[in-house]
Design a protein that fits this description.
The protein is of the alpha+beta class. The protein is 46% helix and 12% strand. It has 6 helices and 6 strands; from the N terminus they run H-H-E-H-E-E-E-E-H-E-H-H. The strands form 2 sheets. Strands 1-2-5-6 form a 4-stranded mixed beta sheet, with helices on both faces. A two-stranded antiparallel sheet has the order 3-4. Helix 2 packs parallel to helix 5. The longest helix is centred in the first third of the chain and has 18 residues, at 28-45. The relative contact order is 0.13.
Amino acid sequence: MARGLRMSEAQLEQAKKPKAKSVIKKSEHEIQCEFFKWWRTWSELKQIPTALCFAIPNSRRLSDSGRIYAWKEGLTAGTPDVFMAIPQKKSIYKTAFHGLFIEFKSEKGKPTPEQLAFIQFANAVGYKAIICKDSSSAIDEVMNYFNSQGYFENTYQAFQDEHNAVKQ
């Protein structure tokens, strides 16, 4: 037998063991797609216009001319991936947050300095801005955002009352 091709008993045993399944890491794109799959279903159930939560396509891979074109249209470095344009209500007349920004990151992803600055500023001026590493944490954040003040019961009823008062 050729030299170096022999296996020790320990190596042979190790080779016989089934290999652990490798965990497939999800990309930011996959995480965001999972979130929006949930959002579209959930928002319809809660009768919230689906379009009030939308992606901000900042991470597109663009050519130099495409980047200039997008910059002229308002593309801004550091803007989070998703915005929910629904204020969180403290009461009928007071707002806790103006809206919710979500930045998705893969398991090993790190926010850029521009993203951190945006999140810090948004939080300082009345928005809630967060970083989520998976879709379930983003879903939990959205559920907490709505449920923390009995949002649906208070807001929808207040909207109906105001709407009916204006009609009369």
